Amino acid sequence: MSRDDALPPGLTANPPFTDNLRPGDTEGEDPLSRMERFIAEGDREGAIAHAETIAAARKQEGWPAGLVASLAHCLIDLGEPVRAGVLLEELMQSGEANARAMLVLARAFSLAERHQEALDVLNEASFLDGRSAEVLLALGAARIAAEDMARAVADFERVLRVATGDNGREADQRAEAHFRLGEIWTALDERARAARHFHNSQAEDAADRRGAAIRLAELDAQPAPARASAAYVRALFDGYAPRYDGHMVEALRYRGPELLLEAAEAADGFCSGAPYDAVDLGCGTGLSGKAFAKHCRSLEGVDLSPRMCAAAEASGFYTKVTAGDLLSALGAAPRAFGLAIACDTIIYLGDLEPLFGALDKALLPGGWFIFSTERSDGLSQEALERGFEMGPSRRFRHTEGYLAALAARHGFAIRKLGTETLRMEKRQPVLSLVCAMRKA
User: Fold this and answer.
1) CATH architecture of structural domain 4-227
2) Residue boundaries of the structural domains of the chain
3) Residues 397, 391: contact at Cβ < 8 Å?
4) Are 228 and 326 in contact (CB under 8 A)?
5) Are 135 and 108 a contacting pair, CB within 8 Å?
6) How far is Cα 399 from Cα 401, in angstroms, rounded to an integer?
7) What's the first-to-final CA gap in the chain, in angstroms?
8) Radius of gyration (Cα) for the chain, nearest Å?
9) E strand segments, 134-211
10) For residue 149, which of 63, 386, 394, 408 sits 20 to 30 Å off, Cα-Cα?
11) How would you label 175-184 residue by residue, b for 16+ Cβ within 10 Å and e otherwise?
């Protein structure tokens, strides 16, 4: 086996995770499926050791460069760009690296702040395929990291000239190029140019995986959305899943599940009603499941990200995990719940009326809704008009008055509501509302 196309398609790139295909679900016991199983099970050290073992045995086993590139890509997702770079530099030195391996190596170099080396690798990749939109996109991203904006603009503009096909892949490449150009022109305070490119990105990608609608709202080029697009949230967390727990807990000092549990246990009547049949809305990797498990008779999880769902399943705290939209999951639930948890989930929703409408039917009388959201002081025009606003980190913030009005309209009694610091961001505390409501 000597060529990338000798591998099944799923092994020449990271598997295309969907609602029907989760990490590790590719057929057989191939190295990449095993890598994804390690990741899904939260076995970080096992995943790293596996990738390095496969790379070391590559020649004896006949594995092609594409497999090593995919394993290296997984290492990057795990927050290990230096280890990923080591695997791929060996391919470069032996002359076996193809263009895709070079792209992954360049990303590893950029994340390790080795910007000139990233550019050198990408220039070599461009010699192999100078009209590759994928290479040009990577070149532009590397130039942004190296603060060479003028050349980055030229790279992305060139993508728009070469990716002219009607197929979905080239449309996505155009969407990425436009989005990147929008980011550059925003940074240069060229708001009209930036808005034009964000609009074009949105037109090429109706699902808005990059969050162009949010960027346009920041530029006052269109009204703020009522919620972040599902595709945007899914893409964000599929890439974040392998390093989510470590980064949130260690780097950002995240205490969301613990603070929600404290609020629930301090609310009059919560503990006496346990154990509950519960649902965790936006379950992530299962941190809330771990915190609330002692109060649950059964616990279902739902999350947009299949990679997050795989990790939640592997945690062992859930009786069932569903990859999909939380409103759809609540509407399709065959039974009512006694407890709904939403930790750092509704920061991507904005307008909470649909969620409370779904909870009207999904919660039993006397059922609990325990959740957090980032706190708005209510002073902006947007917050005054809607009760929520888009914050500087492109997440929604809600006012206490908005939550109180929703509770009153939908028959909930607020049993606990306070301001807490769920995590740090850029060395500043992120102030959040932690709320325990009980349905009448």
Assistant:
1) Alpha Horseshoe (1.25)
2) 4-227, 235-439
3) yes
4) no
5) no
6) 5
7) 65
8) 23
9) none
10) 394
11) bbbbbbbbbb
Determine the Cα–Cα distance for residues 69 and 97; give it in Å rounded to an integer. Answer: 9
Instruction: Yes or no: say if 195 and 183 are a contact pair by the CB < 8 Å rule.
Output: no
Question: Token digits for 83?
Answer: 């280890």
The residues pairing with 390 across neighbouring beta strands, listed in sequence order, are 396
DSSP letters of 337-381? Answer: EEEEEESS-GGGT---HHHHHHHHHHEEEEEEEEEEEEEP-S-SH
- Asked whether the beta carbons of 415 and 268 are under 8 A apart, the reply is yes
Q: What average pLDDT does range 9-33 have in this prediction?
A: 48
| Phi, psi (rounded to 5 degrees) for 378 | 75, 15
What is the Cα 424 distance to its own chain's centre?
18
Reduced to 3 states (helix: H, G, I; strand: E, B; else coil), residue 320 is: strand
Residue 32: its pLDDT value, please?
Answer: 85
The CA-based angle 297-301-305, given to 5 degrees, is 165
C-alpha to C-alpha distance for 296 and 37, rounded to whole angstroms = 27
Round to whole Å and give the CA distance between 209 and 194.
17
Token reading at 119:
């550019």
Q: Pick from 23, 25, 5, 30: which is nearest to 100 by CA?
A: 5
pLDDT per residue as tens digits for the range 85-127? 999 998 888 888 888 889 999 999 998 889 999 999 999 998 8
Tens-place pLDDT, residues 167-208: 999 999 999 999 999 999 999 999 999 999 999 999 999 999
* Nearest to 209, CA basis, from 235, 182, 188: 235
Determine contact, residues 380/398, Cβ cutoff 8 Å: no
Report the DSSP beta bridge partners of residue 134.
none
Q: Tell me which amino acid residue 108 is.
A: A
AA identity, residue 360: D
Contact 327, 355 (CB under 8 A): yes
Residue 258 backbone dihedrals phi, psi, to 5 degrees: -65, -40
Q: Give the C-alpha separation, 63 to 1, whole Å.
A: 7
Instruction: Decide the pairing of beta strands 396-398 and 388-390.
Output: antiparallel
Q: Is 394 left (phi over 0), alpha (psi -120 to 50) or beta?
A: left
Q: How far apart are CA 260 and CA 412, in angstroms?
A: 17
Q: Is 62 helix (H, G, I), strand (E, B) or coil?
A: coil
Q: Which CATH class is domain 235-439?
A: alpha beta
Residue 423 bridge partners (DSSP): 430
Return the closest-CA partner of residue 271 out of 332, 211, 338, 320: 338
| Position 29 confidence tier, pLDDT thresholds 50, 70, 90 | low
